[in-house]
Amino acid sequence: MLNLTFENALPQDSSIHWHGLRIENAMDGVPGMTQDPVAPGETFDYSFVAPDAGTYWYHPHINSVEQISRGLAGVLIVEEDEAPEVDQDITLVFDDWRMNQDASIQAPFDYAHDQSHAGRLGNFVTINGIGVPEYNVRAGERLRLRLVNAATARIFDLLYKGFEAAVVAFDGMPLDAPLQIERLIIAPGQRMDLIANVTAEPGDGALIGFEERGEAYVAVDFPVSGNSALAARGEIPALPPNRKPALDLASARQKRMDMSGGAMRGMGPAVWNGMRLNARELATDGQFWALSGVVGLAEEPFITAVIGETVRIPITNDTAFPHAMHLHGHHFQEVRSDGSLGQLRDTILIGADELREIAFVADNPGDWAFHCHMLSHASSGMMGWIRVG
Ligand code: C2O
Ligand code: CU
């Protein structure tokens, strides 16, 4: 049981959402849905049992473009009872800042151009708040690397050198078997746990980098000095499994979600605050995106599920941009076009013009947000919700 008192010392309303934790609805931290906003000077007691081991994070869920862009985000690690043995356990929070010349954070946070395009991309990337941090390692060491993307818009296309590595968890949830991949895409809100053996020789360097528009950048340096005293540990192990609810795809409740809007595509008339408005009227009000014809929080849930039933949501992205859709209170699996199932995740990156289907067992009662984690998109229309029970 985790008991925390959140005190809002900001000059504006706030809250804390525990991203990826399957906790009680009343503790989910979404003002207007699960609690009232916490006013300046007020407190809110969060108390919950963290049910699954893994790498999670937390952040405000109101005016979140500004509050997260200004740095309000933290990592919450739930340890396994029996974690695989590693030499170092390193958390790496990727973030992206839009700064002025004097290193202050650039305001405002609601430029229509950001909202209608790829979100509030920054001009300075940090890992754990540092341009390119260094972690000293030894040749032959085994590391656990917990990657978190806390940026409000930037997708990182990661690569690494000097390691033999495998992904062991996505979004906190252990994979059935370690997955060896060269390119690691991590979208806003997503996490990824790697187990990495240092294969670089002493004097050499290992690194994690990222690629953008054909350019490669170093993100984290791992200078290698000396050899690990420990004998090689053999194959990269899987993490101990978390609970994995069994999907019943055949008798699932199913409803398709259409994402529309944004620059270069536009959208038809959509409902906002109970009114049906055309794209021009919506743009005047700073709204650019719709989920199945609804802009922002609808009066009615997108779907109402009976507790315990499987829900399938095929999502079509009819926009010119990728979107990182995040479901609160549950992890889902992708149902691929060949019928196979993806790994448990709480946030899925859906590319332009893609159709991707998610399925989950609706076993956590309450009203749960389901929105794009490009936060400028969420605040300009891509914010929905579902009801369980
Ligand atoms: Cu990480 Cu609804 O958020
Ligand atoms: Cu989006």
Structure description:
- With 389 residues, the protein is mainly beta.
- 5% of the residues lie in helices and 42% in strands.
- The protein has helices at 64-69, 112-116, 279-284, 375-378, and strands spanning 2-7, 17-19, 43-48, 54-59, 74-78, 88-97, 124-127, 137-139, 142-149, 156-161, 163-170, 173-179, 184-186, 191-198, 205-212, 215-227, 253-254, 257-261, 270-272, 275-277, 289-291, 294-295, 304-305, 310-317, 323-327, 333-335, 347-350, 355-361, 366-372, 383-388.
- A 6-stranded mixed β-sheet has the order 7-6-9-14-11-12, with no helix packed on it. Strands 17, 18, 21, 24, 26 and 28 form a 6-stranded mixed β-sheet that branches. Strands 8-16-15-10-13 form a 5-stranded mixed β-sheet, with no helix packed on it.
- The longest helix has 6 residues, at 64-69.
- The chain is globular and about 65 Å long.
- The structure holds CU-O-CU linkage and copper (II) ion (CU).
- Copper (II) ion is lined by residues 323, 372, 374, 377, 382.
List the main descriptive attributes of the protein structure presented here.
single chain; 389 residues; mainly beta; 6-stranded mixed sheet; 4 helices; binds CU-O-CU linkage; binds copper (II) ion
The proportion of strand residues reads 35-45%
**What small molecules are bound in this structure?**
CU-O-CU linkage, copper (II) ion
Number of strands: 30
The DSSP helix count reads: 4
Largest sheet: 6 strands, mixed
Span of the ends, CA to CA: 24 Å
Principal-axis shape: globular
Mind telling me the C-alpha Rg?
A: 21 Å
Residue stretches low in confidence (pLDDT < 50, at least 5 long) are none
**Helix/strand class:** mainly beta
Strand order of the largest sheet: 7-6-9-14-11-12
Q: Taking all residues together, what is the mean pLDDT? A: 97
Helix content percent band: under 10%
